[in-house]
Each structure stands twice: as C-alpha cells, then as structure tokens.
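help with this.
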Amino acid sequence: MDESRKKKLIWQLPFLTLLIVGTILIIRQQQSTPYQKDSGTIFGTTYHITYQYDEDLQEEIVNKLQEVDDALSMFNKESIISKVNNNQPVVLNDMFVEVFQLAKEISKDTDGAFDITVAPLVNAWGFGFKNEQMPDKHAVDSLRALVGHQKVSHDGKKIVKKDPRITLDCSAIAKGYGVDVVARLLDKKDIKNYLVEIGGEVVTKGISEKRLPWKIGVTKPSEDALTESGELQTILNVTDKAMATSGNYRNFYYKGKRKYAHTIDPKTGYPVQHSILSATVLTDRCVRADAYATAFMVMGMEKAKKVLEKNPDLMVYFIYDKNGQLDVWYSPSLKDKIQQ
C-alpha cells in the first residue's frame, strides 16, 4: 500500500469510528425510549394509540380528536356538520372543507357509490342516526330526491344545497380522517414508530415495541351477533400503511326470509344484495381507505376491480360468499403483506 493511501485511511478512521459509535448510541436510545399507550372513546367508538416517545401525548391527541368531532360528528349538536344539516349559519373550518372535498372526489371516482348525502336512506332502513321503519317504494323514491353528491357544493366558506332538506353524514370517512389527524400530530413530533387505531381503522409507522413490523388481523365474517370469538381470516403486515375495513356481516336484520344489510346503494335507495361480506383497503391515507372500503361494499367486486385499475395506491382484501362458503380475493400487490 502506498504512502498516500495509508494517510487517507488514517484520516478516515476517526470519522468511521464516530459514525459507528453514533449509530450504536441512536439504536440504544431508540430501544430505551418507552412506548406510550393511550386509549379512550370518540365518534361513538373506541381508539387505541401506541407510539414510541419519551412523554405521554394523551392531552394533545384528545384535543385533535375533539377538533375532528367538532367538525364532523352528527352526534355533536354544535358541530359544523350538524349546523350545516340544520341550515344554521356556520363558518366551515379547514378540516370540514378537506373532508368534504375529498368525499366529493371519491364520489365521482366511484360513480356515486360513496356518497355523504345518503343519510336519509340509511336512517329510513333503520341503520343510521335515526332508527325508522322499513320504507316502501314510494318512501324510497321520495328520499332519493334528497340524495346525490352532485346536489351539494362548496362555495368559499359555505355549503350550498340544491334542497335545504339534504343532510350530510361523514360517518363513513370521519374515523379514517381522525386516524390521519393523529398520525400527522405524531409525525410532527418526529415519532418514528406508532400505531393509531380508531374503531378498527388503522395507520402504522415503523415497528412495534416487540421490534417487529405492525401486523393487523382481518376478522372472519360471522352472522352470529352473540359470537365474539375474534377468529381471523388472515393477518396483514401493515407497516407504514393505512388500513380500513367495511363489512355487512354484523349490522343487518331479517324481514321475513330476506336479509337487509346496512350498506345502502345511494343510486337505488336499497340495501346492497351482492356477495361481498367485507372489504379491507390498504393505502397511504386512512381517510381514503375508509371511504373506498365503504364504496366497494356498495359496488360489488367486479365494479370495484375497475376502480382499483384507476387507483394503483389502493390494495384490497375481499371476503365474499361463494355458493355458501367463504372465499377471498385480494390485489396482487397485497400478496407480500399476507402473513397467513
């Protein structure tokens, strides 16, 4: 080895040593930093949040979730959406506008399968904010006049309705949005490892406290409301992804010999009757996963596949009824994330 190369190596050694020591210190610090676990209730459901940080952020998390509730909750009489529905004067905030605009985009993309104006029909069938009796054809046709994403628009800081009786319901998108809002808070804190879950909708980043990738189970559909066995259909690796599931197998009732599920088709006004029992969607934002999971339950598998072709960021796991037996179909891009 010539003299110049020896000198170069000698100069490099301190830097290499510093790099190695620094890396070891960072790893040790990461391993010693505790995982915080916060939980509570919001949007009429529960939340569980796990994150690696040296202090508890429960108060900040609750404040963020309350902001979402104040914007989008129909159960909050003082929320922005409640005032919009009651045609009261209200100034829309950034959260409401963001969700409203995204809902409109997804409505167009799914040809109206996702629609935040569907609440009157959901209520009429006994699944929504108000529990009413099963409607007849005349009632369904009358309510359809109040449903349609194209009948509402955003004008500056106001919502404009073509009919004042139109109401908005963000329950099929608000949980996912709430998950994203908390994730943004954790990202601003430069937190590298976390899991945010609200009512089954999830966003993850990094690794769990077991130093393993985050894994979430997809529940096997069961119509037995008394059975809470938690039997899993599969387990998915959802590290650095958002995940949401929509299903018809728990919220339904029978009238005569016919089953009526809670997913209502905004176009027909009737509960959907296709074979999908649950739709799980993975993508980068939980608000999109939440909305598209609902849309796919309305659309059915073949139409959903066409939407997937236009949205390569979406991955799905469908569980459906095939001649009385459970079967699955999933996006080819999801194959590497399936654990069992």
DSSP finds nine helices and 14 strands in the chain. Residues 213-337 form a domain with the T-fold fold (CATH 3.10.520.10).
